[in-house]
């Protein structure tokens, strides 16, 4: 089928529901976007930011990729962060991973997966960094879950190490970076107790003077 008719019908039903509850919603939405949050999440179809947070369009700026990675050579991700911080003046960056992440799972095995192996190398580096801690766990599921969490923590650090975020802090901009993880099995978010608000809270080697 060249035209996915069902999806267009669903879109029309959705738009009607929104307009019935707020007739001016799309008019106001088209005039500007003013979100306070940037969500950096996984591209997994089971982890939609707006639905998880019960937020309507316009409330959260979103970037998603395989395994919610923040890589310093990824101009796509960096451009999103720069636009969110410098133009939208968002106040919170949320890096959100999820349990059961296929990208994390693939990085834990020794199989060849094709082009994505180059991307997964970044997760393997996280595994290598925490290898002793991860391997001390008994079950493969525990190791899998821990790597999902540790990957989020490392990506929070990567966000904080960018010149974009550090320059915003130097300019006195209110900006906090958070690390969360989502449970697909129960729909609940978990705060990983990673919250960075200024350069003093990151490693000395990564601070820009």
State which percent range the strand residues make up: 15-25%
Give the class from helix and strand content and strand pairing: alpha/beta
> What would you call the shape?
globular
> How many β-strand runs?
5
Helix content: 40-55%
N-to-C SSE string, H for helix and E for strand: HHEHEHEHHHHHEE
Q: What about the largest sheet?
A: 5 strands, mixed
Question: Which consecutive residue ranges, at least 5 long each, have pLDDT under 50?
Answer: none
The gyration radius over C-alpha positions equals 19 Å
Distance between the termini: 57 Å
Q: Helical stretch count?
A: 9
Q: In which order are the strands of the major sheet placed?
A: 2-1-3-4-5
Could you report the average pLDDT, rounded to the nearest whole number?
A: 95
Sum up the structure in keywords.
209 residues, alpha/beta
Which SSEs are present, and which pair or pack?
Elements: H1 5-21, H2 25-31, E1 37-42, H3 49-52, E2 60-65, H4 75-87, E3 92-98, H5 102-108, H6 116-129, H7 131-135, H8 140-161, H9 163-170, E4 176-183, E5 188-196
Parallel strand pairs: 1-2, 1-3, 3-4
Antiparallel strand pairs: 4-5
Helix pairs in contact: 5-6
Describe the fold and architecture.
The chain is built from 9 helices and 5 strands, in the order ααβαβαβαααααββ. The protein has 209 residues and is of the alpha/beta class. Strands 2-1-3-4-5 form a 5-stranded mixed sheet. Strand 4 and strand 5 (188-196) form a beta hairpin. Helix 5 packs across helix 6. It starts with a helix and ends in a 13-residue tail after the last strand.
């Amino acid at each position: 089928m060249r035209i996915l008719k069902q999806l267009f019908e669903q879109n029309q039903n959705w738009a009607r529901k929104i307009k019935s509850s707020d007739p001016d919603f799309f008019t106001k939405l088209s005039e500007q976007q003013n979100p306070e949050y940037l969500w950096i999440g996984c591209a997994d179809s089971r982890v939609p930011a707006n639905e998880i947070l019960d937020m309507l369009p316009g409330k959260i700026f979103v970037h998603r990729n395989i395994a919610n990675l923040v890589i310093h050579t990824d101009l796509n991700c960096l451009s999103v962060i720069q636009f969110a911080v410098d133009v939208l003046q968002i106040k919170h960056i949320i890096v959100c991973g999820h349990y059961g992440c296929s990208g994390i799972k693939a990085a834990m095995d020794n199989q060849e997966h094709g082009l994505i192996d180059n991307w997964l190398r970044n997760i393997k580096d996280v595994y290598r960094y925490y290898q002793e801690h991860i391997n001390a766990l008994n079950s493969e599921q525990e190791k899998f879950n821990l790597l999902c969490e540790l990957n989020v923590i490392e990506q929070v650090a990567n966000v904080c190490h960018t010149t974009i975020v550090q320059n915003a802090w130097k300019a006195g901009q209110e900006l906090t970076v958070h690390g969360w993880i989502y449970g697909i099995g129960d729909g609940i978010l978990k705060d990983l107790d990673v919250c960075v608000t200024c350069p003093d809270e990151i490693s000395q080697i990564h601070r820009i003077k």
